[in-house]
Design a protein that fits this description.
Strand content: 5-15%
Helix content: 55-70%
Oligomer: single chain
Shape: globular
Order of helices and strands: HHHHHHHHHHHHHHHHHHEEEHEE
Number of strands: 5
Distance between the termini: 53 Å
Strand order of the largest sheet: 2-1-3-5-4
C-alpha cells in the first residue's frame, strides 16, 4: 500500500482536484501560458516532422548548431515528450497525461530503489502527495513536472548509491539520467559533482578530487552543448551571458543585489511561493546545523547520515546561490526551479539513517498539511482557465489557416515557419510542422523576414525596418495573416 501511494498518489490527486474544482476531465485541458503553448506546439511538430519542422525562434534568430529548430529552452523536453507522442499520438491534453505518468513512475522508482523502512516509505508517500509545487504544476504543460520526476528519481539513485557503494548499474543509470536532465535544464549540472562524491565517497581524497574535477568538466561540456542547441534572443539567459564572458562582474553584482532584494520581499509573491521560500531556507539552516553536529561527533563527513544531509543540503544551497547570481528572480521562478531541489534534498535526507533526518522531513510535511486550504484555493484559481475556456478562438484560427498554411515536407524550415507578433493560446490550432517564430521587437528582424507566413497586428507591421512585401490571407481579432512574398517559397509541385 505504501508503494502504491508513492506511485499513484500524485496522479490520482491531480485528477481528483481537476474534477472537483472544475467538474471536467483532464482531457479538457488546453495550454495557456506562453511557454506552455510553445512547448506543446514544439512537441506536436516533433511528433509530426521530427527535426525537419519549422523554426521556433525570437526575432528569427536561430541557434548556432542549426541542427534543431527548437526555441530558447532547447530540444531536451521537446524530444523526450515528443518520442512518446510519436508512439501514442499527440492531443491537447497529452502533456498532462505524460506529466502524471512521469511522476507516477518516479514515485515507483523511489519506493522500490531507495530501500526505506516501512515508516519512512509512508512518510515519503505523504510528502510526495503534499508537496504543493508538484501537484500545482502537474496540471499544466510546463516542464516542472518532468523536473520534479527527475528530482525523485535522482534522490532514489543517490539513496541507493549511498546504501550500496560501488553499484555499477546504479552509477551508470544515474549518470545517464543526470546528463539527460541537464541537457533539458542546465540547473541539473549542480548534481554532477555531488554524484561524483556519492560514487567515490569511500575512495581516497585524491581520487575523490579527480572524480569531482571530471564531473565539472562534463558539466561544462553539457553546458556548451546546451548553449549551441538553444535559439538566442535579444535579452538572452543571463547565465549563458556570464559563461560566455559577454557581461562584466558589475552586471553579476547588480543581478545579485536585485535578486536578494526580491527574496526579502513578500508583497509581489503568492502564498505558495512564500511558503516554499520559508521551507527551503529553514531546510538549509537545519540541515547544515545537523551536518556540523554529525561531523563534530564522528569527525567524518563521509559517513551516514552526514553524507546524506551534506549532499541534499549542498544541492539546495548551490541551486539557490547560482540562481541568485545568474538568474533573474521573477514571479514563480523559485516555485518552478528551486522546488525540484527542495524535493530532492528532502528525499535524500529522508533516506538517511537515524531519527533526526526523519524528523526534519516530518516538519516539512507538517508545514504542507497546515497549508492545504491555501493550496486548494490557489490551484482552483490558477488553473481555471486551463480547463474552462472558450473554444471558438481555436476554431476561428483553424478556419483562417485552412487552405493557406500547411506543413510541406522536404522544404526549407523557413518555408514552414509562421512569424507572429501576438501569442494567443489559440496558436495550438497552427498545423504541426509549422514553427512559431515570435517577434517582440520587429526592428531587430533582419530584412526581409525569412518566415513564409506572418501573423501581425497593425502596430507591429509598421515597426519593421522596411516595408513588407506581403499578401493578406485572413483577418483575425488579434492580427492579419499574410504570406511573405519575399520568402520565395514556391508551392510544392507534389502537393505535400
Amino acid at each position: 500500500m505504501a508503494v502504491l501511494f508513492c506511485t499513484s498518489g500524485v496522479p490520482l490527486l491531480t485528477l481528483a482536484l481537476v474534477h472537483w474544482a472544475y467538474g471536467v476531465q483532464i482531457s479538457a485541458y488546453h495550454p495557456l501560458i506562453n511557454d506552455e503553448v510553445a512547448y506543446w506546439h514544439q512537441v506536436s511538430t516533433f511528433t509530426h516532422a521530427g527535426f525537419s519542422g519549422g523554426y521556433y525562434t525570437l526575432e528569427e534568430a536561430t541557434n548556432p548548431s542549426g541542427f534543431t529548430p527548437f526555441g530558447p529552452h532547447g530540444p531536451g523536453f521537446i524530444v523526450l515528450y515528443g518520442l512518446v507522442g510519436s508512439i501514442a499520438d499527440w492531443h491537447r491534453h497529452s502533456v498532462v497525461i505524460l506529466n502524471l505518468i512521469a511522476l507516477g513512475c518516479a514515485g515507483w522508482i523511489w519506493a522500490t530503489c531507495a530501500r526505506l523502512t516501512l515508516t519512512r516509505l509512508w512518510l515519503s508517500a505523504a510528502l510526495l502527495c503534499t508537496f504543493w509545487a508538484t501537484l500545482y504544476w502537474a496540471a499544466t504543460g510546463m516542464q516542472e513536472s518532468f523536473h520534479h520526476a527527475g528530482a525523485i528519481v535522482m534522490a532514489a539513485l543517490f539513496a541507493r548509491m549511498l546504501s550500496t557503494p560501488g553499484s555499477k548499474p546504479t552509477a551508470i543509470a544515474g549518470s545517464i539520467i543526470l546528463v539527460a536532465l541537464a541537457i533539458t535544464r542546465p540547473t541539473w549540472l549542480i548534481l554532477m559533482p555531488l554524484w561524483a562524491v556519492a560514487l567515490l565517497r569511500h575512495s581516497s581524497f585524491r581520487r575523490l578530487c579527480v572524480g569531482v574535477a571530471a564531473a565539472l568538466a562534463v558539466a561544462a561540456l553539457v553546458l556548451v552543448l546546451y548553449s549551441k542547441m538553444t535559439a538566442p534572443f535579444s535579452t538572452g539567459f543571463f547565465f549563458l551571458k556570464v559563461m560566455s564572458f559577454s557581461v562584466g562582474i558589475q552586471s553579476v553584482i547588480d543581478n545579485l543585489t536585485f535578486n536578494v532584494n526580491r527574496t526579502l520581499s513578500v508583497s509581489d509573491y503568492r502564498p505558495l511561493e512564500i511558503l516554499l521560500r520559508v521551507q527551503y531556507w529553514t531546510f538549509l539552516v537545519v540541515v547544515f546545523a545537523l551536518v556540523m553536529r554529525e561531523v563534530w561527533k564522528r569527525s567524518n563527513w563521509r559517513s551516514a547520515p552526514a553524507i546524506h544531509l551534506a549532499l541534499g543540503g549542498s544541492a539546495m544551497v548551490t541551486a539557490l546561490g547560482l540562481m541568485l547570481l545568474l538568474y533573474t528572480l521573477t514571479n514563480q521562478a523559485e516555485f518552478r526551479v528551486l522546488s525540484a531541489f527542495l524535493l530532492f534534498g528532502a528525499l535524500v535526507t529522508l533516506a538517511a539513517p537515524g531519527r533526526t533526518p526523519a524528523i526534519v522531513v516530518a516538519l516539512l510535511l507538517v508545514s504542507n498539511i497546515a497549508t492545504i486550504r491555501t493550496f486548494v484555493d490557489e490551484f482552483e484559481a490558477g488553473h481555471r482557465d486551463h480547463f474552462i475556456w472558450d473554444r471558438r478562438g481555436v476554431f476561428e484560427l483553424d478556419d483562417a489557416l485552412s487552405g493557406h498554411v500547411a506543413y510541406h515536407t522536404n522544404r526549407p524550415r523557413w518555408c514552414n515557419t509562421l512569424l507572429t507578433a501576438q501569442y494567443p493560446p489559440y496558436l495550438i490550432a497552427v498545423p504541426p510542422g509549422i514553427g512559431l517564430s515570435v517577434v517582440r521587437e520587429p526592428d531587430r528582424v533582419a530584412m526581409p523576414p525569412r518566415s513564409r507566413y506572418l501573423l501581425l497586428d497593425p502596430p507591429s507591421l509598421t515597426e519593421f525596418k522596411a516595408p513588407l512585401n506581403v499578401k493578406a490571407m485572413a483577418t483575425l481579432p488579434y492580427g492579419t495573416l499574410y504570406e511573405n512574398l519575399d520568402a520565395h517559397c514556391e508551392p510544392d509541385p507534389r502537393g505535400k
